[in-house]
Write a structure and sequence with these properties.
The protein has four helices and eleven strands, in the order E-H-E-E-H-E-H-E-E-E-E-E-E-E-H. The protein is an alpha/beta fold and about 180 residues long. The strands form two sheets. It has a nine-stranded mixed beta sheet. It has a two-stranded antiparallel sheet with strand order 5-8.
């Protein structure tokens, strides 16, 4: 059975990420972000959202593990910042119902959502510049980089929250990540 840990970066929806994976039959565990990387035994990691970069614990070190990583909201932002991209204030700010255009139908994480999907997103901060090796896989009218992927390193990020009911295909994002982690 595929095992995916959800790293708690103190976001308000982290428990929903854990539940979404559990409901898909994934062996999942919610771990605190101060868990030493060498203690993680998993096929994949979800870096949850959270309030700010000052409370990300060991999350940057988890990017060095040789397993797939999905960053959600702050998780995507910290991935971008740690790997050489740039994060800045969003023009929109706050939570909103957003229509996202999928740019890469072959992307293993979100390509199946093409041509577009409606999501619940927060854009107080966002990725402004991609790290080397990443491709922009989704965009919207309020955020230029709604999702990013580096399929060579199995690193994926979404600005939105697939774990909340307002995101129409959120479960599919978690299914796709489960399949990535299982090597399917």
């Amino acid at each position: 059975m595929t095992r995916i840990v959800v790293v708690d970066n103190h976001g308000q929806f982290t428990h929903l990420e854990h539940r979404a994976l559990r409901d898909l039959g994934v062996d999942t565990e919610l771990i605190d972000n101060d868990t030493p990387p060498e203690e993680i035994d998993a096929d994949g990691i979800v870096l949850s959202g959270g309030p700010d970069m000052d409370r990300i614990g060991h999350s940057p070190a988890y990017l060095d593990l040789d397993i797939p990583v999905l960053g959600i909201c702050l998780g995507m932002q910290l991935m971008a910042a740690e790997l050489g991209g740039r994060v800045g204030a969003g023009d929109y700010g706050g939570y909103a119902d957003v229509t996202v255009s999928i740019e890469d139908e072959s992307d293993p994480l979100i390509g199946s959502l093409a041509p577009e999907t409606r999501v619940w997103a927060s854009h107080a901060d966002e990725v402004k510049e991609l790290p080397d090796g990443f491709e922009r896989t989704a965009t919207s009218e309020v955020c230029n980089i709604e999702a990013m992927s580096d399929t060579d390193r199995n690193r994926y990020g979404v600005q939105w929250h697939p774990e909340v009911a307002h995101t129409e295909a959120g479960e599919e994002v978690f299914e796709n990540f489960r399949d990535i982690c299982a090597g399917d």
